[in-house]
Every structure is written in C-alpha cells, then in structure tokens.
Design a protein that fits this description.
mainly beta
C-alpha cells in the first residue's frame, strides 16, 4: 500500500488549506484513513480519522475547524483545515489501516508541511 499526500504550504493565520491523501495498492474495503501531525520537538498526534463507513474522530484541538472526508471510490481522504492558527504548524502525515485475517496493516504516507504564519 502506498499513500501520496499533498496540499501543504504556507498560510496566514485564519486561512484555510485542504490536504489530500490518495492510497493505492491492495486495500481492504473496510479500513480507516487518518491524518496525524508532528510539530518540531513534539510527538506525533492524531488530528482526525474516518472509517470507510464514515465514522469520524477528531482531536479536541481541531474540532469545529477541521473536517475530514473521504472518497472511497478513489481511496482518497481529505482534510479541510479552516481558521488555521500558528499552533497548527506541523508536518502532516496520512495513514491507512485495515485488518486482513489476523493481521493489521498500517501504512503511512510521506509528510506534507503546513506552516501557519503571518
């Protein structure tokens, strides 16, 4: 499984960005895709995730500002980020996980840098 993330960049506080993550390979239809982020000197943290059935989970720090969505036909997840603040500055990683038999497969994409600064 390969994940290709895109959409990062520099944005001013209060601005918006949309990240995309396209998955390819041998993927189970029942899966979860998510976005994590890691700021300099910090641990990687979950931002948002969504199952293939549409159940979403958000970190408290992004609730009401970020929205995760998916296009299952395209194996693509999106993260719409609004009202960005400098604390959102981080490298954002997409992730896909699924069970196959007794095994759990967990794949990560390359990071995409989001910088919120004036």
């Amino acid at each position: 499984v390969q994940l290709q993330a895109s959409g990062g960049g520099l944005v001013q506080p209060g601005g918006s960005l949309r990240l995309s993550c396209e998955a390819s390979g041998n993927i189970e239809n029942s899966n979860v895709m998510g976005w994590h982020r890691q700021a300099p000197g910090e641990r990687r943290e979950l931002v948002a995730s969504m199952t293939s059935s549409g159940s979403a989970l958000y970190a408290d720090s992004v609730k009401g500002r970020f929205t995760i969505s998916r296009d299952n036909a395209k194996n693509t997840a999106y993260l719409q980020m609004n009202s960005l603040v400098p604390e959102d500055t981080a490298v954002y990683f997409c992730n896909l996980g699924f069970h196959r038999g007794l095994n759990y497969f967990d794949s990560w994409g390359q990071g995409t840098l989001v910088t919120v600064s004036s």
